[in-house]
Amino acid sequence: MIRNLSALVAGIVFGLGLVISQMVNPAKVIAFLDIAGNWDPSLAFVMGGAVIVTFIGYRLVWSMKKPLLGETFQLPQKREIDAKIAIGAVLFGMGWGLVGLCPGPAIAALTFGGGKAVGFIAAMAIGMLAFELGSKALSRNRG
Amino acid sequence: MENFTPVSATLGGMLIGLSAVLLMGLHGRIAGISGLFSGTVFAGTGDRLWRLFFVVGLVGAPLIYLIATNHMPAFDLQAGWPIVVAGGLLVGFGTRLGSGCTSGHGVCGLSRLSARSLVAVIIFMGAGMATVTAVRLLTGGTPS
């Protein structure tokens, strides 16, 4: 239970960060991406604050033998920069620019963003499902 | 730059970083929201419950903020329904194909000095900026 409760706390802290930085507001995100308009650099400061704390904090926790509630540190092993990551990032960037929402803020906005926040999450889940089904079909054909 | 909020942006960002450090120090996991959400909804393993609790915390945070400050967070979404749905599909498919989003590649990947994540961040920020600029040109250039 302590594993689940600590994950709940981490989710709350993440969500409060998104609310305080106003990243839950699509207009604020679009104002960062709108370099030809009335540019608002705030998102770069959100990234900067997050990366500084994470960069230092990761090195502190990695000095432990293992996580306090887990067995190992599970880090992504992939190194190659391939077409999948490039095309995926382009598609994600297009959707992000169209609406001003990425997954974290969209989920946090479920409670106060109204129908469009819910609709965005539903479409996002369908997009993820399409990827799952597509990769299963591909691996079946290859196998 | 009239809406520039560097102090609240940096403070909020530091909380996001703290959350990423908590998840690594306690669970040994990357705080990538697209992966956490996808794992909650689609993964068929017994490992999904802590992910669900993280997502519940994320959903509940604005309510805690509302109770603490008596202010509802601002939410200004100009896009119409067809764009919202298209954007959601692109974000969902794109984050899975590209193995991450702003949190996984942006916050956690850059902090791990991952070249793969740096490339992803540059590409999705560039694609986002190009998309907003294209929308601006197509809709007559009025600032949102």
Q: Overview of this structure, please?
A:
The complex is a heterodimer of chains A (143) and B (144). In chain A, 69% of the residues lie in helices and 0% in strands. In chain A, helix 2 (26-33) packs across helix 4 (83-99). The mean pLDDT of chain A is 96. Chain A has 143 residues and is mainly α. The longest helix of chain A is centred in the C-terminal third of the chain and has 29 residues, at 114-142. Chain B is mainly α. In chain B, 72% of the residues lie in helices and 0% in strands. Chain B has helices spanning 6-27, 33-41, 48-69, 81-97, 102-111, 115-138. Chain B is globular, with a radius of gyration of 17 Å. In chain B, 56% of the residues are buried. The mean pLDDT of chain B is 93.
Number of strands of chain A: 0
Structural class of chain A: mainly alpha
The secondary structure category of chain B is mainly alpha
Termini distance of chain A?
40 Å
**What percent strand of chain B?**
under 5%
Low-confidence parts of chain A lasting 5 or more residues at pLDDT below 50? none
How would you describe the oligomerization state of the chains in this entry? heterodimer
Global outline of chain A: globular
Radius of gyration of chain B: 17 Å
Please state the average pLDDT score of chain B.
93
Q: What is the makeup of the main sheet of chain B? A: none
Task: Round the Cα radius of gyration of chain A to an integer and report it.
Answer: 18 Å
Taking all residues together, what is the mean pLDDT of chain A?
Answer: 96
Task: Give the DSSP E fraction of chain A (strand runs of 2 or more residues).
Answer: under 5%
| Total count of helical runs of at least 4 residues of chain A | 6
Helix content of chain A: 55-70%
Keywords:
heterodimer, A: 143 residues, mainly alpha, globular, B: mainly alpha
Give the structure's gist in a few sentences.
With 143 residues, chain A is an all-alpha fold.
